[in-house]
Amino acid sequence: MTEPLPVLAATDHGTAKLMPDVDRDRAWLLTVDGAPQSYVDLDDPARLEFEYARRLALATDCAAPGDGPLDVVHLGGGALALPRRTAAVRPGSRQQVVEADAGLIALVARHLPLPPDSGITVHHADARAWLEAAPADSTDVLVADVFGGSRVPAHLTTLPYARAAERVLRPGGVYVANLADGAPFAFLRSQLATFGAVFAELALIAEPGVLRGRRFGNAVLVASHRPLDTAALARRAAADAFPARVQHGAALARFTGDAAVVRDEDAVPSPVPPDGAFGIG
């Protein structure tokens, strides 16, 4: 049997590479400009490899317990690892994926095609523009995992963007975002202040070393108007193969401190990761 070969392609926003997993048939790692973006196992789509992806999925599970179908919007597509996982564990879900890179969409469709009955629709659009045009009260969970290279774009960090996210969510819906920062956490604290100005409830999931400022890394923000089951979230995060902590309430308020809400005119992208923070060999 011929071993699959890596696939290299120039896309709209960089150089994408699909690398086969030598240990698993039909499993692939997607990188863009050397930064890992997605890991997909076509034979086991519920399997997630990346720590941040597992935490996004965990937040989604705790937002809507059970295995019933959901309406989910994903801002940022990559190789569609999270939408594939949701389709596998919650059959019948209707999912919209918004990806700004048309070349990446074409690459993934060609080499990692979705099943015809996946319930996943992919849109080529800017995440915020699509969100601002989407129907109000139309989705249960909104997952934001948008990186330009290794940075969250500035226009997806602001108060008007947070309000657009809230408008699209149904009452009781949950916003979940993958962010990245390191001490002294100016960017992460600004995001907590911004989303705290819109949503009544916030929680943050991250590896303890990141929260203690020992290293740069991912943190998952969870926001809603209804009380979050932070006890269940904390139990599952602690028991994961990649253990994480959940901060909420007074501890999260102390972490946020006096950070200011981000306006469009003041917005900047998330910080540049240190060399090697997300890269691979």
Topology:
Blueprint: E1 7-11, E2 14-20, E3 27-32, E4 35-41, H1 51-63, E5 71-75, H2 81-89, E6 94-99, H3 102-111, E7 120-124, H4 127-133, E8 139-144, H5 159-168, E9 169-181, H6 186-196, E10 201-206, H7 208-211, E11 217-224, H8 230-239, E12 245-248, H9 249-256
Parallel strand pairs: 5-6, 5-8, 6-7, 8-9
Antiparallel strand pairs: 1-2, 2-3, 3-4, 9-11, 10-11, 10-12
Helix pairs in contact: 1-8
Task: Give your account of this protein's structure.
It comes from Streptomyces lichenis. This is Fused MFS/spermidine synthase. This protein has one domain (49-266): Vaccinia Virus protein VP39 (Rossmann fold, 3-Layer(aba) Sandwich), CATH 3.40.50.150. It has helices spanning 51-63, 81-89, 102-111, 127-133, 159-168, 186-196, 208-211, 230-239, 249-256, and strands at residues 7-11, 14-20, 27-32, 35-41, 71-75, 94-99, 120-124, 139-144, 169-181, 201-206, 217-224, 245-248. The protein is α/β, with parallel strands linked by helices and 281 residues long. It has 9 helices and 12 strands. The chain is 29% helix and 28% strand. The strands form 2 sheets. An 8-stranded mixed sheet has the order 7-6-5-8-9-11-10-12, sandwiched between helices. The mean pLDDT is 94.
